[in-house]
Amino acid sequence: MIGQLGFMADALRKEASNDFGPKDKGQSRVVVVSAFIWSCFIAMAQSKQGKKPKLIAAFHAVNQRERMVPQLPAHSFGNFYRKATATSPVEIEKDYGFLVSEIRNGIMEINAEYGKKLQEDDGYLELVKKGDGC
Question: 2-130 falls under which CATH superfamily?
Fold first, then answer.
C-alpha cells in the first residue's frame, strides 16, 4: 500500500511539474498530494445538487520552528505551528498546477518575516484578530 502511495505521489509531482515547466524546482509530496485531495473536494462541490459552496479553502499545518530567525532549538518544548491557507472559487475550473501553486504559496507565506510579526508586542494578538491565529 505504501509503495502505491509513493508511486501516486510521484505521478502527481510529474503532472505538477508539467504545469510549471522545467525552471521550477520539484514539488514536495505533501504539496502535490494535498492539491490532489483538494481537487477531489472541489470536484465533489461542483457535482453537488442544490446550494453549492462559493469558495473552498485548504488549510495546511506548517512547522514554524525552522522558519524563524534565529531558529528555535530542536529540543524546545511544545508545538509551534501556523496554518497555511489556500482558497479557490468552486465554480471556476482550475487546473492541477494552479492548486499546487496556491498551496505552495500559502506555505511560503509562513517565513522569517511572519515569525518576526509573531514576536512583536501584539503580533500574535493581531494575527488572531485577523483570523490567522491557530
Answer: Chloramphenicol acetyltransferase-like domain (3.30.559.10)
11-22 tens-digit pLDDT: 766 666 655 555
Query: In this structure, what C-alpha cell is assigned to residue 2?
Result: 505504501
The string of DSSP letters for the chain reads -HHHHHHHHHHHHHHHHHHH-TTSPPPPHHHHHHHHHHHHHHHHHHH--SS--SEEEEEEEEE-GGGSSSPPPTT--S--EEEEEEEEESSS---HHHHHHHHHHHHHTSSHHHHHHHHSTTHHHHHHHHT---
Q: Provide the residue type at 127 as one letter.
A: L
- The model's pLDDT over 7-58, given as tens digits with 9 standing for 90+, comes to 566 776 666 665 555 545 667 888 888 888 888 888 888 887 777 778 888 8
